[in-house]
Amino acid sequence: MSEDHHHAVPTTPVEDRVAAIESLLVDKGILDTAMVDAIVEHYEHEVGPMNGAKVVARAWSDDDYRARLVADGTAAIAELGFGGPEGEHMVIVENTPEVHNAVVCTLCSCYPWPVLGLPPTWYKSAPYRSRMVREPRVLLAEMGCEVPEDREIRVWDSSAEVRYLVLPMRPGGTDSLSEDELAALVTRDGMIGVAPL
Amino acid sequence: MGGVQGWGPVEIEADELVFHSDWERRAFRVTIGAMAAGHLSGRFRHAIERMDPAWYLTSSYYEHWLVAAATGLVEGGLISQAELDERLGEPFAVARPVRAPRLAEPGPSVDQHRYGVGDAVRVREWHPLGHTRAPRYIQGKPGIVVRLDGVFSLPDVEYHCDGTRREPTYCVRFEALDLWGEAGDPVHVDLWDSYLE
Hints:
The complex is a heterodimer.
Chain A: H1 14-27, H2 33-46, H3 49-61, H4 63-71, H5 73-79, E1 90-94, E2 99-104, H6 113-116, H7 126-134, H8 136-142, E3 152-157, E4 163-167, H9 179-183, H10 188-192
Parallel strand pairs in A: 1-4, 2-3
Chain B: H1 22-36, H2 44-49, H3 53-58, H4 61-75, H5 81-88, E1 120-122, E2 142-153, H6 155-158, E3 166-174, H7 176-180, E4 187-192
Antiparallel strand pairs in B: 1-2, 2-3, 3-4
Helix pairs in contact in B: 1-4
């Protein structure tokens, strides 16, 4: 193992390591800074759960759209103009009075970027990734999402190419709301399945 | 991480920013830039898996990305370890070397699903030295196919071979009793054909 000059945990601050590799890549012409700045701008400001909320609100408002969404998530989401990396193979899992869905990636951090943006830290954390498959009902309750005893929890571990979006149940008393008003009710955590909405 | 015990609560940060600090944004830029240019293909995730476990568990998500980018660029020959060390002014920590043997041939691609929805399947016991997307907690476990997904490159081959092997993927439902020895809610995992017996 002569090539394995490894220190278990490096002591150099991560900021210094980022700066070192970044300057090296720029000097060598490997990093296209204009391109990556545009990508960062996109994910920091233009993509996020507001996209997924529009998808959910449309499904709540339009039964034909809802049917298309459940049948082919990628195509129905593209109708609203959303798509791209980590959203090429979308599957929508629909909450009902009998079933509550929740999404995890136990291997790393797979997440539907075009509709939810980049994942929050807790989604990528060891406690979430380990416990969501082992004790989902306990963990959801801890996270403030009490699922009735007679409602099955279906956990979806996105371990291959599919990315999942939970379609929450439309809350009661919202018949008079417009699609925009409905979208404002939808939360990121509801579309991951760790909150009722 | 699926099913690993001993983790505490999931800590949710209210109004979390996409990036907590500038170095996270810069680590994202470096990694996305290298990925978009095709420099990390077949190396990124396995590099994270080859981080020392003590380092992996005590470092944050974007440090994992930084390490995987640095490791992948060195292994791909775009930059050298010596250049990184010189730029940083001390040894630049990367992941441990690949231990899995390089595959001479990818093996035959398959384009037809062997199983249909409703079929009983069992996951192969399979703990390779290299990269795999078959989570440990379902190895050897019985399940039921609930959905047929697309035909995709098998990462186990792609990461360790110059060629690719394409295989159908499945979504398989596992009962808690089979996974954990006690009643509970089911987990669904997306699996390539090779992962099934």
